[in-house]
Write a structure and sequence with these properties.
- By secondary structure, the protein is α/β, with parallel strands linked by helices.
- It has 2 domains: 49 residues, no CATH class; 113 residues, Metalloproteases ("zincins"), catalytic domain (Zincin-like), CATH 3.30.2010.
- The protein is 37% helix and 20% strand.
- Helix 4 packs antiparallel against helix 5.
- The longest helix has 28 residues.
């Protein structure tokens, strides 16, 4: 093979899938008993697809108030697809949100954790019920669903039918959140990215292409702490 890859085996998995992460790492999820030479053959047959993903250039749009620099007055942070200004407030004990982020001045130097914790709490509050609703619409059942901290994947569905959602999704518009959730739940019906898989996702998320474009344009911003 002409590219490096990591193989992750599972006794629960029945089919092989290939994932090219945004950090350009290639991960092969394979059934436990699948021989190495068979994995190599499958990767060889998918070489063109893998290289297309590896060489794909991401495009990101400049934001009027790019986040991720300092936690100061006038800075901005994303929430559900919109930018809101940050305002530091004296004698405030916790973050408040009212068309802007009101942040205690005492937490100004905790940039990497103060908003992250708030985002995670909001992700649990808003994303988890969304997943339950979409699962009912799709007619699927998952074992567990949780919010995770994963910089290079927006979501995942494990061989044990567990669904993971990246807390950073709470920064994205709800139509993008819906797309990612349905994408992962659709894997409970179709393990691979077949034509039938995409038909399921498109049927349940009419704004699928808009959501994918949004992630392509703004994915790098979501990866920032604020």
């Amino acid at each position: 093979m002409e590219f490096a890859y990591t193989v992750k085996r599972s006794r629960k998995r029945k089919k092989l899938t290939i994932t090219v992460e945004r950090d350009k790492s290639v991960v092969v999820h394979a059934p436990f008993e699948l021989p190495d030479d068979r994995i190599g053959e499958i990767l060889e047959s998918k070489k063109a697809w893998v290289f297309e993903k590896l060489t794909h250039s991401q495009k990101y749009s400049d934001l009027p108030h790019p986040p991720g620099k300092e936690l100061v007055n006038g800075e901005s942070a994303l929430y559900l697809g919109k930018l809101y200004r940050i305002e530091l407030v004296e004698q405030l004990e916790e973050i408040c949100f009212s068309n802007r982020f009101l942040i205690p001045s005492s937490q100004q130097h905790q940039r990497k954790t103060v908003l992250k914790n708030w985002y995670i709490a909001k992700a649990k509050e808003k994303l988890l019920p969304k997943a339950v609703g979409h699962a009912k619409e799709l007619g699927v059942n998952f074992n567990h669903i949780k919010i995770v901290d994963n910089r290079y994947r927006w979501g995942s569905c494990t061989p044990r039918n567990n669904v993971n959602l990246n807390w950073r999704l709470i920064k994205a518009p709800m139509f993008t959140v819906d797309y990612v959730i349905v994408h992962e739940l659709a894997h409970l019906l179709e393990a691979n990215h077949t034509a039938n898989f995409w038909s399921i996702v498109r049927t349940h998320t009419p704004k699928m292409e808009k959501a994918r474009s949004w992630l392509k344009e703004n994915g790098q911003i979501l990866e920032e702490d604020i």
